[in-house]
Amino acid sequence: MDLRELRSALEQELLAFCWGEWAQLGVLAAPLGSASPWAQDPEALIVLTLEVARMDPRLFDETLDWMTLNERLLSVRRMRAMCIDDEDRALVRSANTWLSWQRPSEPVPTTAIKHRRSLQPLFYMGGPIDDLDPSFAAAGFARPPLRRSGKSSHPNLSAPIALALRLRAILGVGIRAEVVRVMLGKSGSWVNAQELARASAFSKRNVHDALAGLVEANVIAVAAAGSELRYMIDTNAWSALLGLGSRELPGYREWRPLLGALRRVMRFARHDSLQESSAYMSASATRQLLDELRPELSLAGIGPPMKVTAEDAPRALCDAVTTMLSCVSPTTGAARTLPTSVRPRQ
Amino acid sequence: MMDNVAISSRQNVDVLLGAVGEQLVARGEHYSIVVVGGSALMALGLVSRGTRDVDVVALLQDGELVSAEPLPEGLIKAAEVVAADFAIPVDWLNAGPASLMDFGLPDGFLERVECRGYGPALEVRFASRLDQIHLKLYAVVDQGAGQHLADLQALHPTVEELRAAARWSETQDTSVGYREVLLRVLDYLGVPGGPPRA
Known about the structure:
Number of strands of chain B: 6
Structural class of chain A: mainly alpha
Strand order of the largest sheet of chain A: 3-5-4
Number of helices of chain A: 15
Number of strands of chain A: 5
Largest interface: A-B, 12 and 11 residues
Distance between the termini of chain B: 44 Å
Largest sheet of chain A: 3 strands, antiparallel
Largest sheet of chain B: 6 strands, mixed
Oligomer: heterodimer
Helix content of chain A: 40-55%
Radius of gyration of chain A: 21 Å
Radius of gyration of chain B: 17 Å
Distance between the termini of chain A: 10 Å
Order of helices and strands of chain A: HHHHHEHEHHEHHEEHHHHH
Shape of chain B: elongated
Helix content of chain B: 40-55%
Number of domains of chain A: 3
């Protein structure tokens, strides 16, 4: 397996995915081929984009422009909950610091930038940077000052992809909107608080409280299964409220683990040191990556690869990436395959 | 891979220890270990049977042998990664025979070892044929025949080598019961009279 080829293929696919998703949500972008059939998780998409867009500064800056315009519909707490590692946390921190400084009430930062040499370039293509953006520098990234383009628009809340934002417009930014989004995605199934907590990125206790409120309001049903409470949403009632036929509800994806797993693979493929390491060490690192991915892939509903040896790991990783990319393909059932050059020789 | 035969050939030993060596480089750690048992016999080409583990009897630190029990954390972690990489038992590299250090290894043990480097981070000293005869004879008497006896016979020990091994083995166990079994084993191996008491 050629890691550079894997990285390149993954970057191209995910850049196209992010641009496509954001274009439907109001970021200025070229028209799309087909609309996404699913409801997107805004914070999961933001955290993915903050990494993917390090290869495309325009996507990065336009996404932050969109976030500024639509900040009232976003949850900083959920953004933090999406983070899988320190790199995510630094990117989210810098984006949120920058966002907070865009508010008219916030003073323009005057923080002196220290340790300029210790900053890592935010964008992978490098290039000289004369002036640094202080909000990104504070989180350890070097980039030129970011100024709003002002090109973003508010999302069309009736679009399937914007269901989460629409529910937040109705119920407020918080647990209830997320719980309802997940339950509509899993309509027809009984779910418990733990599943909803995992998918919504809120604590089980808080989800439990939110569910109790929704049950009291008689908009979801509850049933005891042994000592466990299980919940089901009244799809017809919610569809009617949203002005949709019951079969018109958008599709569901477990975005949090799916996009987290894709970020993990992207960062793995970026390790230049692996290119120089022996075939065994590269395969061993790939096998260890698969072990890390296994829980996320399982939560994402993707059959995780069975435990494999280091020798078999590169092929298993290629298979897993192909499956993950298929899950983010708007064309249902479209099987994305990695270029032949990426795959290990048989 | 079967659980009871994780290491099936001399090449296998080299591959696994080479992998540990690479993992140690990545961890920035360095160890010198002393290996006895089936894997050492295979590594030296003295027997060709498979084995389930690599027995580390001691570590070499500043030119001195020290007990391998407990194995250093970094070495254990590296071996665990290798175990998962090759789908072999997690404890394939272990300090099982470390107690042999309690009463001392045969005189001159360290001078007779065969030293091999597995990259810059792992040195392995394999017990020599003569010392393996010592250890195997002790194992046959202490633990019973089976594989140990087969290994001992595969080493084609001379009468003198067995007598020397018997003398050393009695430093490990001075009981009357041990000597009785030792004499029977020596007799079976064609060494009349047994060794004088150490």
